[in-house]
Structures are given as C-alpha cells and as structure tokens.
Amino acid sequence: MIPVLFVTSELYPLVKTGGLADVSSSLPEALCGLGYDVQVLLPGYPDALAAARKAGSRRKAQFRIGQYEVSLWQTRVPGTAFTLWLVDCPLLFDRPGNPYQNEEGQDWWDNAHRFELFGRVGAMMAMGEAGLSWTPDLVHCNDWQTGLIPVFMAPVSRRPGIIFTIHNLAYHGVFPHQTFQDLGLPESLWRWDQLEFHGQLSFIKGGLVFSDRITTVSPGYAREIQTPEFGHGLDGLLRSRQEALTGILNGIDVRVWNPQEDPELTFHYRRNHLKNKARCKVSLQQELCLDVSDGPLLSFIGRLVEQKGVDWLISVMPELLERHCQFVLLGSGEARYEAPLKQLAQQWPGQMSLTLGYDEGLAHRITAGSDIFLMPSRFEPCGLNQMYSLRYGTVPVVHAVGGLSDTVHDPQDADTSVANGFRFSEANEQSLLAAINRALESYSNRQSWRRLQDNGMAADYSWQQRAQSYDDLYQAILKEREQHQLD
Ligand code: ADP
Ligand code: GLC
C-alpha cells in the first residue's frame, strides 16, 4: 500500500467552513478504496481534539518547534478508513471561532504563524522527522494553509513526491514582508518567482512553485485560472507551470448525500419515485413557516461572500417574490449582505425564509425540499451544492463558470438526454434572471421538468471514477521521483 500524507485545514464532520472539508474526507476515503494508505493531517482544533479524546485516542509523538510545544494525536473518524493525525499546539489552535477567524469574524492576527507551524509539522512527517514509524511516498497539500510544506521540503533531494491542490485561488494567504522576516524564512525565497507577491509574502505561491504537480478541482477552473480574469494575479505563474497543472472534478460523498437514506429527511425518495420529494417540500415549508403551496420553491445555501453572487440574488428576488415564487436562503458570511436579506424576508413573510448561520441538517432538508437551486457564483472552482442538488432532483440554475460549467448542462446547448439545469454566461443580474425565467417556464411543463430531474438524478457524482484520476497522477509522480533518485 502506497503511503500518502494528505494535509488539510478542514475535515468533515469535525471542522468545516466550506467544500474543502467535504473533499478532505471523501477523497482520502476513495483513495483508501483504491489501495492507498492515506493518513490525514489536521490542526488540533478544540472540537477535533475533544472527539479524539472521547474516542480514547493516543498522543504518539511530542516535540518542540521554536517556542511551541507540539504533540501529534493519532485517531480515526468513525466510519472512515483513513488514519487522522491532529497537530496539538494549544497556543495556536485551542481557540473558539472557526479555523481562520475569531468569533467576531476577524482573521486571527497570527494566522501566518499558525499555518507555518502546521506546515513545519507536515514537512517533518513527510520526511520521517516527527518521531513516527510511518513515512509517506507522497504528500498531498491543499490550499494556502499548506503552502509552506513544499517550501520546507524543497532542499531535500530524497523527498516524497508533492501534489498541491487549489480549492480556491482567491485565498492566497498573503502577509506583510515583516511576517516573512518574523518567520525566519530564508532571504533567498524573497523573489517574485518564489514567495514574494507584490511586496508581500504569499503562502499559496509556495505550493504553486515548489510542488511536483498542481491540481485544481475542475477542468474548467484549471483553464480559467490561467487567464487574467480568474487568475487573481497568479495566472502568469500558472501558465508557466501548465505542464504540471491538471483539473480533476471533485466527487461527492454519496453516502452522506443520498435522498434514499438521508437521516436528516423525514421522507425518502429516489429516481422515478419522486412522490416523497413533494412531501419533503411541504415539510420544509412547515419547518420554515412558509405558506404550503405548489408554486416554485427556489433556494440558496452557501457562504455570503462576493464570490457567490449574493448581490445578484438580492437584486432579482423582489421581482420573483412578486410573481409568487418562494425563496429559502441558508448562509453565513459578510454582514453587508445580511441587512438587505433581512429586509426582503420581513417584507415577504410566508414566501421568503432567511436562516443566518451554519446548519448541516437544514442544508440537507433545503436541498431535498426545493425545486430550483441557485448558484450564481462569480467564479466557482468546483462547487458541491449543485451536485448535491442534482442528486436530490432539485434543478440547478448556475453561472457558467468553473466546475458549474463542467457539471450543469442547459437544454439550450445540450441534448435532452443530458440537460439537467440552466446556465447563464454574462456576469450580471439580468442574465441570472433570464436563466431563472427559463427554469420557471420549464417548471410549468411537467414533462420537461421531470426529464431534467431524471437526468440529474441518473448521473454518477461519486468519487469512484474521479479518484482514479488522482491515482494516475500519483503514479506519474512516483515514477518521476524514482527516476530523479536514480539520476
Ligand atoms: P465553498 O467551498 O466555496 O463554500 P462548495 O459548494 O464547494 O463551496 O461547498 C460548500 C459546502 O458548505 C457545502 O457542503 C454546503 O452545503 C456547505 N455550506 C455552506 N454554507 C452552509 C451553511 N450556512 N449551512 C450549512 N452548510 C453550508
Ligand atoms: C472551494 C471552492 C469550491 C470547491 C471546494 C472544494 O472552497 O470555492 O468551489 O467545491 O473548495 O474543492
């Protein structure tokens, strides 16, 4: 079994702010299924450590890095095949709030130090220096929080292969030059083609420059990030590494997201037997104090940030509510979106429901109980919610970007045997509204709607095939490393 260290800052169900958490549990699980010995490394956040202690897990190594006492806990999330390691460093990770921010929604002042230490531990484990009897052949890093691992490993020639996955290029992990000095990183790394980014330190550049291979989470996004429009200033660097860059579409955990067995639902249903989906809709309307009606129920679940196009939703909603649509929104994020959303919900009781916060169970019930799921993201590396919706017979309306273009097919340009949702190309609210209008028209034609639902529910969104692409990539890196060591 090939040993792989998979390093991530989020892991479902222990700690989650977005899709990274979902992928960090479902991809390692799928890779274990393909015969890899995947071991996941996660910061020891309070909830994760509490779960490990409760499970009777053990501390396996203890060491000091600078001023910090660090220990490694070995544990396992019930029902998963991979080993989980937690980096216990109370001074840096034993805090309330989410992995990156305090309870007021501000970034922790010492995030650079927190994820530098996390990276050092990752690199130590990768190179067999953490006092464990296990050493990986491959290290799989994810997003900027792990960006320094390839940097720390670079000087060693007999190192494992390194793969870096971009889940969202909008987050670079950028800090002032002073932080670069405080971290004691070698001066030689302060170059525009290494860690320097417009006079600042960029963690993600470490991953992009020093890894053997770079992946991102859909083929569409892999193309987009090489353009100035979507490259967040890193398109040039990514173009220069295009030989090493691949887009592999994310899969979803089809056990967690399964309308036939979902424990969050009172009624279960499957393809060709959608009667209970209508019951899920009524339950949802009752739960959220909406009028129980047959009209179209539209929904949105996600982070309330610019990326997700929440402002476009806010602009088109009044007209749709006027036309007797219902709208359910579950989200948390930036305060600037909350006031206009609250105002809409107050103005349209019975038709609009707003839940500010994070609620996994409600997310499942909304996905099942809605007719149309809206994802007007300005950019979307992959997006998981559209795949959850498709699997639940809820028709998505999406902006044709990144992973949304790769998974949602519009009857306007796809064969009726594959069309499963609606897309718009122009990045503005009129285009969104036009696509919703086309969806509503189709909704009123039972036959065409059933066809869309059926195509969505019939497709395979599991990791089974998609993990195979990682397998191929892993094998290619291993071969290259072997060759390198022979040379
Ligand atoms: P991103 O990672 O950019 O936020 P994804 O579509 O990949 O977008 O994944 C988002 C994940 O987070 C999904 O599993 C979604 O259901 C979940 N999610 C986002 N916001 C909430 C919320 N407020 N309550 C429950 N789940 C949420
Ligand atoms: C990021 C992206 C999202 C993707 C997720 C998992 O948070 O914004 O599109 O689905 O990572 O890869």
Can you describe this structure in just a few lines?
Helix content is 38%, strand content 19%.
Describe the 3D structure:
This protein has 487 residues and is of the alpha/beta class. The protein is built from 18 helices and 18 strands. It folds into two domains: 272 residues, Rossmann fold (3-Layer(aba) Sandwich); 186 residues, Glycogen Phosphorylase B (Rossmann fold, 3-Layer(aba) Sandwich), CATH 3.40.50.2000. The protein has a nine-stranded mixed beta sheet with strand order 3-4-5-2-1-6-7-11-12, with helices on both faces. Strands 15-14-13-16-17-18 form a six-stranded parallel beta sheet, with helices on both faces. Bound molecules: adenosine-5'-diphosphate and alpha-D-glucopyranose. Adenosine-5'-diphosphate binds next to helix 1, strand 13, strand 14 and helix 13.
SSE order and pairing:
Blueprint: E1 3-7, H1 19-33, E2 37-43, H2 46-54, E3 58-65, E4 68-75, E5 83-88, H3 90-93, H4 111-126, E6 138-142, H5 148-153, E7 161-166, E8 174-175, H6 177-182, E9 196-197, E10 200-202, H7 203-210, E11 213-216, H8 219-224, H9 235-240, E12 245-247, H10 275-287, E13 297-304, H11 310-322, E14 326-333, H12 338-347, E15 352-356, H13 360-369, E16 372-375, H14 385-391, E17 395-399, H15 402-407, E18 422-424, H16 429-443, H17 446-458, H18 463-486
Parallel strand pairs: 1-2, 1-6, 2-5, 6-7, 7-11, 11-12, 13-14, 13-16, 14-15, 16-17, 17-18
Antiparallel strand pairs: 3-4, 4-5, 8-10, 9-10
Helix pairs in contact: 1-18, 10-13, 11-16, 14-17
The chain binds adenosine-5'-diphosphate (ADP) and alpha-D-glucopyranose.
